Amino acid sequence: MIIKEASNFNIAIDQSDFIESDYIKGITNRALAYIKAGFAVHLRGSSGTGKTALAMHISEKLGRPVMLIHGDDELSTSDLIGGRCGFRVRKVMDNFIKSVLKTEEDMLQHWIDSRLTVACKYGYTLIYDEFTRSRPEANNILLPVLQEQILDLPIIRNEKEHYMKVHPQFTAIFTSNPEEYAGVYRSQDALRDRMITIDLDYFDKETEVLITRNKSSLSLDDAECIVNIVRDLRATGKCEFAPTVRGCIMIAKSINVMGIPVDAQNDTFCQICTEVLGSEITRSCNIDSRRPLKDHIYTLIQTYCRKGE
């Protein structure tokens, strides 16, 4: 997936390298049906389950410009709807009567709409990535947007009306990590009630193999060997953090750049696997606690990557 800069706030998306397996098609079709029925979609899952990429894919199917917002602890309501930015100075000099010079001067702040306002006004697709990393009070503005299709606007916006009717083609797609993740807030029940949540699990094997091959240009057999290592390591349930397809991609792209074969007898290949997966599955710096997992990774490499035997 490639994201290209476009005009104003919106982005143009090129997903020519996106893999749409049967698993992905099923989720995409359900999400599009929910959107067509008039509901916002919420993709929830652990890190590495493809939430953002899938949100981009769904938005591409909708065929509308995309506005992207990343959740952040410092994000405020004004960051979503806009605010005052800079000043505009106006000065009028009246010398109609030569002996009298009349001067009138005032200074006004200039209002700039932000991403949510623009998306609501023009009917764009809003992708709010990791929305639960923003403080719940910042997201309160979304409640009337998703329910009544009305965006409340501050008086200081200098418009005659202080609300905006949401464009009928406006769509919202949210993503989030589970609430037990660090830096994640519990979202308001009222907000979650206004969207349909699709819980994402790790990809099936077919999807992971296709993604790994497509991202690295390795052969299908080599990509499958790497995926087998990661999936078996994940299945042990002994990892502090389960390895994801990101680990497969990191290994595959690294060995492809270095010209290293997927071979258990190649020491560099074994080292890359243990370093990449070791960094993904635990934060511990204790050598003794990491050694059993590294030994298990090495065993999996010997199981799936013995070439010429």
Describe this structure in words.
The protein has 309 residues and is an alpha/beta fold. It is built from 11 helices and 11 strands. It has helices spanning 22-36, 51-62, 77-81, 115-122, 142-147, 189-192, 205-216, 220-235, 245-258, 267-281, 287-304, and strands at 2-5, 11-14, 40-45, 66-70, 82-94, 102-113, 125-129, 150-152, 163-165, 171-176, 195-200. The strands form 4 sheets. It has a 5-stranded parallel β-sheet, with helices on both faces. A two-stranded antiparallel sheet has the order 1-2. Helix 7 (205-216) crosses helix 8, helix 8 (220-235) crosses helix 9 (245-258) and helix 8 (220-235) packs across helix 11 (287-304). It is elongated and about 95 Å long.
Key structural traits:
single chain; 309 residues; alpha/beta; 5-stranded parallel β-sheet; two-stranded antiparallel ribbon; 40% helix; elongated; disordered N terminus
Tell me the series of helices and strands, N- to C-terminal: EEHEHEHEEHEHEEEHEHHHHH
- Mean pLDDT metric: 86
- The share of residues in extended strands comes to 15-25%
Low-pLDDT segments, ≥5 res? 1-7
Give a nutshell description of this structure:
The chain is an alpha/beta fold and 309 residues long. The protein has helices spanning 22-36, 51-62, 77-81, 115-122, 142-147, 189-192, 205-216, 220-235, 245-258, 267-281, 287-304, and strands spanning 2-5, 11-14, 40-45, 66-70, 82-94, 102-113, 125-129, 150-152, 163-165, 171-176, 195-200. It has a five-stranded parallel β-sheet with strand order 4-7-10-3-11, with helices on both faces. The protein has a two-stranded antiparallel sheet with strand order 1-2. It has a two-stranded antiparallel ribbon with strand order 5-6.
